[in-house]
Amino acid sequence: MTPKECGLPRDSKAQAEQIRSVAVQRIGARAGRLPAPVMGSLDAAIRLHLGLRAGL
Predict the structure, then answer these.
(1) Domain that residue 9 falls in
(2) How many domains does the chain have?
(3) CA 20 to 30 Å from 35, out of 4, 41, 44, 56?
(4) Is residue 55 included in any domain, yes or no?
(5) How does pLDDT run across 32-44, given as a tens digit for each residue?
């Protein structure tokens, strides 16, 4: 994703196959934003990798 697409200072990517858990204390302020269609695709990819069904 380009900075214009996501609001981050440089090109970035989301890797649905590399999900990790983090402590809530490590979560900071929002850094960027994804357009709804991109977020929908990312959500579907995460569900696929976790073996979850959509709409549950």
Answers:
(1) 3-27+34-50
(2) 1
(3) 56
(4) no
(5) 999 999 999 999 9
- What average pLDDT does the segment 21-36 reach? 93
Full-model pTM: 0.74
Q: Which residue has the tokens 């929002």?
A: 30
Distance (Å, rounded) from C-alpha 25 to C-alpha 45? 26
Yes or no: say if 47 and 53 are a contact pair by the CB < 8 Å rule.
yes
The DSSP output letter for 24 is G
Report if residue 56 sits inside a domain. no
H helix intervals, 1-56: 3-6, 36-50
Q: What is the dihedral of CA 12, 17, 18, 24, to 10 degrees?
A: 90
Please indicate, yes or no, if residue 40 is contained in any of the structural domains.
yes
Decide if 41 contacts 15 (C-beta within 8 A): no
